[in-house]
């Protein structure tokens, strides 16, 4: 309505006057106003309806304003809006049970945090205390959060501003078949060479100094590049061989996004610690956490765990998690995410590859897909250089928005990461709209 649009314009002015935004040069930033959200739609500041294939920051896994989750938050607010972490609270207890029942292996104990970055911080702290070893291995082309240690284990340019004190973080090259760092031409070769490189890194750094290895089971923001067959199992074996705690970061890949409850399930790997956030409650109230194995739990059975947060296991966030996980279960959303990937997104992206020379590769699983845009298929020259955007990518993203989409873009990639319960016809319409952006990308192909 005209009033909503007017209110949006007022909010925009206040935002520009007073809000300091994440990851931005504040001056030129021109954020999109969102007036309203529902299911897989958002309405921008002009009142235009857009299909959200970004799931915001890949966290609204069950779409916007799910009535059961909204009702659960209301109910919890009426009952106990907040309580300190040392007290038992039914919402927290139930959320912990539902999560522990779904995490793999013996990850039966849940430490709640406010989001993903602090989950990563605590997982590393637990691993260091458990092993008595300080160094942390993590992959280039990864994202693990914005706080000091989490951004240091991150393997992307957001780390550069904070890496004057890296606190024992060592990066290794990931297995990434499309842009192999090892000159591999097959997946099998990539697995073998990436594991050899990782083992060499461990030996050269000194296994006796390395407490933890953290790896996104499917790297998210860094490109949704699936690990080739055998890679995660190989990583797991190396951590056994050298006494290193394996931390699976499932902040983005977890809670159904990959078509399984957790992405490690695709490869039958059981980590020692698993970090989650985002999809655990579809992002309706900030929540993250660490799922902890029995062995690491034992370390802290008699010995104090030196860490905590005022809002650990906040009742509103946990009530939202209980309702979200229950809705995922009752509405069969995990299987639906798998089906959407297999029957709609995958085949359509394959057609994009066939029809659009700017598409270098498509890959993904469930509702977790990436399109690599290139200027040249042969050389794989990306449409934006690593670490930044480009005039070409900006045009592609603008075309997606003009076609009625809220897209997710990173460097030279477009990600297709809708909600797990997006209706088939809305998803098909979204992919039709996305193709408009690919016609624009094709203009920049040089070969
Ligand atoms: N780990 C992964 C894999 C992520 O994708 C993210 C956020 O995108 C984080 C950690 C950090 O989570 P948060 O932004 O909730 O701190």
Mean pLDDT: 97
The level 1 CATH classification of the largest domain is Alpha Beta
Uncertain parts: none
> What is the correct CATH architecture of the largest domain?
3-Layer(aba) Sandwich
Order of helices and strands: HEEEHHHEHEHEHEHEEEHHHEEEHEEEH
Termini gap? 48 Å
Biggest β-sheet description: 7 strands, mixed
Folded structure, characterized:
- With 447 residues, the protein is α/β, with parallel strands linked by helices.
- It has 2 domains: 145 residues, Alpha-Beta Complex (Aspartate Aminotransferase, domain 1), CATH 3.90.1150; 264 residues, Aspartate Aminotransferase, domain 2 (3-Layer(aba) Sandwich), CATH 3.40.640.10.
- Helices cover 40% and strands 17% of the residues.
- Helix 12 packs antiparallel against helix 13.
- The protein is globular.
- The mean pLDDT is 97.
Output the keywords:
Aspartate Aminotransferase, domain 1; binds pyridoxal-5'-phosphate; five-stranded antiparallel beta sheet; single chain; alpha/beta; 13 helices; seven-stranded mixed beta sheet; Aspartate Aminotransferase, domain 2; 447 residues; 16 strands
């Amino acid at each position: 309505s005209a009033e909503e649009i007017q209110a949006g314009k007022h909010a925009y002015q206040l935002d520009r006057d007073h809000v300091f935004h994440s990851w931005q040069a504040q001056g030129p930033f021109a954020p999109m106003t969102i007036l309203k959200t529902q299911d897989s739609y958002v309405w921008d500041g002009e009142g235009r309806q857009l299909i959200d294939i970004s799931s915001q920051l890949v966290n609204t896994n069950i779409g916007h304003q799910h009535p059961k989750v909204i009702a659960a938050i209301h109910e919890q607010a009426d009952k106990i809006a907040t309580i300190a972490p040392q007290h038992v609270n039914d919402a927290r207890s139930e959320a912990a049970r539902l999560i522990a029942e779904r995490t793999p292996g013996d990850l039966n104990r849940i430490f709640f945090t406010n989001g993903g970055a602090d989950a990563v911080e605590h997982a590393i702290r637990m691993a260091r205390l458990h092993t008595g070893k300080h160094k942390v291995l993590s992959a280039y082309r990864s994202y693990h959060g914005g706080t000091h240690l989490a951004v240091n284990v991150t393997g992307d340019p957001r780390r550069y501003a904070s890496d004057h004190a890296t606190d024992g973080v060592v990066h290794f090259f990931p297995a990434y078949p499309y842009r192999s760092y090892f000159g591999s031409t097959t997946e099998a070769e990539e697995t073998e060479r990436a594991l050899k490189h990782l083992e060499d890194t461990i030996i050269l750094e000194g296994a006796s100094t390395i407490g933890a290895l953290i790896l996104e089971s499917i790297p998210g923001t860094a490109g949704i590049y699936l690990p080739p067959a055998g890679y995660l199992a190989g990583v797991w074996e190396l951590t056994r061989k050298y006494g290193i705690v394996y931390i699976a970061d499932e902040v983005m890949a977890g809670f159904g996004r990959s078509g399984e409850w957790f992405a490690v399930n695709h490869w039958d790997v059981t980590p020692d610690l698993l970090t989650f956030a985002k999809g655990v409650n579809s992002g309706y109230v900030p929540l993250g956490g660490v799922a902890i194995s029995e062995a690491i739990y034992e370390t802290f059975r008699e010995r104090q765990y030196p860490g905590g947060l005022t809002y650990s296991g906040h009742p509103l966030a946990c009530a939202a998690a209980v309702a979200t996980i229950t809705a995922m279960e009752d509405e069969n959303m995990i299987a639906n995410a798998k089906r959407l990937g297999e029957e709609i997104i995958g085949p359509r992206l394959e057609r994009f590859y066939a029809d659009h020379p700017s598409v270098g590769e498509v890959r993904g699983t469930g509702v977790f897909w990436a399109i690599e845009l290139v200027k040249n298929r042969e050389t794989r020259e990306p449409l934006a250089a690593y670490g930044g955007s480009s005039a070409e990518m900006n045009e592609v993203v603008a075309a997606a928005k003009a076609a009625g989409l809220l897209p997710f873009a990173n460097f030279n990639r477009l990600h297709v990461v809708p909600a797990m319960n997006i209706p088939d016809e809305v998803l098909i319409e979204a992919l039709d709209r996305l193709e408009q952006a690919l016609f624009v990308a094709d203009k920049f192909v040089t070969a």
